[in-house]
Design brief:
Number of helices of chain A: 11
Radius of gyration of chain A: 21 Å
Helix content of chain A: 25-40%
Largest sheet of chain A: 7 strands, mixed
Number of domains of chain A: 2
CATH architecture of the largest domain in chain A: 4-Layer Sandwich
Function (chains A, B): Catalyzes two activities which are involved in the cyclic version of arginine biosynthesis: the synthesis of N-acetylglutamate from glutamate and acetyl-CoA as the acetyl donor, and of ornithine by transacetylation between N(2)-acetylornithine and glutamate.
Protein name (chains A, B): Arginine biosynthesis bifunctional protein ArgJ
Low-confidence stretches of chain A: 137-143
EC number (chains A, B): 2.3.1.35, 2.3.1.1
InterPro entries (chains A, B): Arg_biosynth_ArgJ, ArgJ-like_dom_sf, ArgJ_beta_C
Strand content of chain A: 15-25%
Shape of chain A: globular
Number of strands of chain A: 14
Mean pLDDT of chain A: 88
Pfam families (chains A, B): ArgJ
Oligomer: homodimer
Strand order of the largest sheet of chain A: 7-14-9-13-10-11-12
CATH class of the largest domain in chain A: Alpha Beta
Order of helices and strands of chain A: EHEHEHHEEEHEEHEHHHEEEHEEH
Chain lengths: 356, 356
């Protein structure tokens, strides 16, 4: 198995516990509660996470060291552990993943899951992922929970490397509100039942596996962005011809994270000045005089100067749910993407009334 | 005179022009238009800024090199220069500062100006400041315009040093939406008419002058934060016992810039979990287990653990316009502050409909 966790210095009890648990490289089950983050709850919080782990292990008749724990919800409230324990004893453990995808939702409006199949070394392999968003989303690690299972045979070390590399271009490239949660994690479990020759080193099979992983993580990441709190739009920012991939990703993330870009898109307003302002405010060195910007394939700025466009065609285009912002930095050959949602009345409403 | 400008790599034409103009260290007038930022407007934009400068110089019968230019408004639209030139010819130049404070407003709801007097070296000295906000406010330089005049006698070099130092704890510590404008600037003009012995070096008089400057800049900065787009609250974050002043300021600014903290305060919701999450997500190394947090002087977290508080008293307290968030890092002796506004329906409305 492999895992990545929030980079927030304030880490929820289940995050702290998992970091110890996964040291042996094996995991067979993950128990998740939603509604209470079990974060900033002191020593009692860590005790509660251990009770969740041990109770689940007992119910499944496996060792506690094989059980991961995740929580999502309000920070700073003591977990009602009696309810959680009672719930674990009532678990349906026949493998109903759809129930799982639904159960972990908080302010999510839609379940997020995907299953793909492919062929590695002549063996049919399957990979499934489930995730939840949908606020406090500014991954690093992604402010979200993601759980991926596969029957591919791969060493834990290589699985960890694949996951750590992958999140840089998938979950870590989504942002809803620029806030980084205390509870983020993505866990991947691979049981090897597909029967392929175990992937132990960088190879064609490893590349193939990484492509599968990227397909799953990117689909889940985009689902999360699309279902951001209060979202009416999915914003997809593509940066081409950057100096480096990191540069391209940073510019894309800065634009998709701008409150002013997000409100403009909610208002179906082609206010591209806010896009170039966000690019200029990023930590990447750019030359504004050579940059091109297009909104849904309609050029709005070329070589740093405004471009006339048909207002009516643009208006119709911005009615769509999916908004594509394309930026050409003309500063190299690297590519990067980021995804997010618009900033809406509903976002404010959801977050102004979250605990009350 | 002295000036500081936006750190955005995309700089509006008037910013580019002023950087050249102020090299001689003298300025006698500033011409400002609102509604159009004259940013990302190419060479024609720079021509327009020069025309504003030259026309104003002609009307005032002074050299063009003594005139500063500022613009604020929508990015990427060509300035209607004929209207601006006609307007300059109709200027009331009898020194009506209140008219000025009003004229430079965009989405500001209130004029922002302050005048203070003090005594330096036995001479009565006066300092006045005028500013406008109120969106795209995440200074560095502050996304705003600020103009300060004084009759203190001080060298340009020392004035520049005082201003550059000062903005780090005043204008650069406010944030409305995390976006950095292309047009920010603060200009200070000192004409020496107070008759004090010219301040030429670090001294008691210089310290006194810096205190005056800080009084003016901080008052204007807080006015801007308080009048942030759609704001119903002024959020004041104080960080005590940080490792360094920079650390304390960074933590304060991270908290006041968190969308989730801002929406919680709009909702009068004491959701302090979002405050500690924002602290943990800052680039400052902290130990969450020793941090205290209080909301309007009511402790909500002590040594990293929740504190019971009277919900009714808290609710009443959060009805106020002014919300004080106090954070004790217990990690040193340094202090820092930051100011901002809540995130409201009205913010979204203003920014979704800005160009249309």
């Amino acid at each position: 198995m492999a895992g990545v966790f929030t980079t927030n210095q304030v880490q929820a009890a289940p995050v702290q516990l998992n970091k110890i648990t996964i040291k042996n490289g094996e995991l067979q089950a993950i128990i998740v509660n939603s509604g209470n983050a079990n974060a900033v709850t002191g020593n009692i919080g860590l005790e509660h996470a251990k009770i969740m782990q041990e109770t689940t292990a007992k119910v499944l008749n496996i060792d506690a060291s094989l059980v991961g724990v995740a929580s999502t919800g309000i920070i700073g409230q003591i977990l009602p552990i009696d309810k959680v324990v009672a719930g674990i004893h009532q678990l349906n453990i026949d493998g109903d993943t759809n129930g799982f995808a639904h159960a972990i939702m908080t302010t999510d409006t839609q379940e997020k899951s995907i299953t793909i199949q492919s062929n590695i070394g002549g063996h049919l392999v399957t990979m499934s992922g489930v995730a939840k968003g949908s606020g406090m989303i500014h991954p690093n690690m992604a402010t979200m929970l993601g759980f991926i299972t596969t029957d591919v045979s791969v060493t834990s070390d290589l699985l960890q490397q694949a996951l750590s590399d992958d999140v840089e271009t998938s979950f870590n490239q989504i942002t809803i509100d620029g806030d980084t949660s205390t509870n983020d994690m993505v866990l991947v479990m691979a049981n090897g039942l597909a029967g392929n020759a175990t992937i132990t080193t960088a190879s064609e099979d490893y590349d193939h596996f990484k492509t599968m992983l990227h397909t799953v993580t990117t689909a889940l990441a985009i689902d999360i962005a699309s279902d951001g709190e209060g979202a009416t739009k999915l914003l997809s920012v593509t940066v081409n011809n950057g100096h480096s991939e990191l540069d391209a990703r940073m510019v894309a993330k800065k634009v998709v994270g701008s409150s002013l870009v997000k409100t403009a898109m909610f208002g179906k307003d082609p206010n591209w000045g806010r896009i170039i302002a966000a690019i200029g405010a990023s930590d990447v060195t750019i030359n504004p005089n050579i940059i091109d910007i297009a909104l849904n394939d309609i050029p709005v700025m070329t070589a740093g100067a405004p471009v006339e466009f048909n207002q009516e065609v643009m208006s119709q285009s911005l009615e769509q749910k999916n908004i594509a912002i394309a930026i050409n930095l003309h500063n190299g050959a690297a590519h990067g993407q980021a995804w997010g949602s618009d900033l809406t009345y509903e976002y404010v409403k959801i977050n102004a009334l979250y605990t009350t």
